[in-house]
Amino acid sequence: MSGEGRHARHVAIIMDGNGRWAKRKHLPRAMGHRRGVEAVRELVRSLKDTRIECLTLYAFSSENWKRPEDEVDDLMNLMRRFIKSDLPEFIANDVKLHILGDWQGLAPDIVAMLEDALEKTSHGSRTLAVALNYGSHAEIAQAARKAAEEGEVTEESIERHLYSAPLPPLDLLIRTSGEIRLSNFLLWQAAYAEMLFVDVLWPDFTPDHLKHALADFAERERRFGGR
Ligand code: FPP
Description:
Layout lengths: L9 E5 L3 H7 L4 H18 L7 E8 L7 H24 L2 E6 L7 H13 L5 E9 L1 H15 L4 H6 L11 E4 L18 E4 L9 H19 L2
Parallel strand pairs: 1-2, 1-5, 2-4, 3-4, 5-6
Helix pairs in contact: 1-2, 2-3, 3-4
Bound molecules: farnesyl diphosphate (FPP).
């Protein structure tokens, strides 16, 4: 039987390789992150040409605090600038922001900006979920704790307390830069996801790469989905 194959509703990306991109071009690491944000912007713009309902991006892990202070500052400043410059575009393009992670632990001005952005985009139909101060083990532990406080600890009760609770099931997890590991990202959610490790450094990742990834996903679904 031939079919169209299931399409990916929820795609998550581990955006890796900003540092290596900058190094190859003999630029400071900060430039790699800056170009990384441009790649994010282009990708979010391209969402309307896909059937993706939710794109989840790993922007800052709870382990990233261990990086040199300068770099952490750069990343936080990029975050500030990104929210400020791109919020009107999210609103105009019907993009709803969602945050995964212990984001209340970020600087108070960033928390305030995020609260504002969450509120202003709350009616959007397509979700951009950003993992900030995120770690999967901590996410599962806090969900299990809350489930226990409520009564029974079951898969369903844990799932209800994951940061991803309002999102569709994860279909496809992509990591750029050729590294093949999950780095404490969406460990629970990835249980049934397809995974794709691409040999492209994040600042070079374009909407075309995403389209190829979606085609790859559809092809895998066609092969394994039916009989
Ligand atoms: C990995 O590259 C990337 C990160 C640690 C952060 C990803 C952040 C961005 C793309 C910019 C911020 C995002 C938003 C949404 C404002 P790396 O530095 O680990 O690269 P390397 O492994 O080559 O050193």
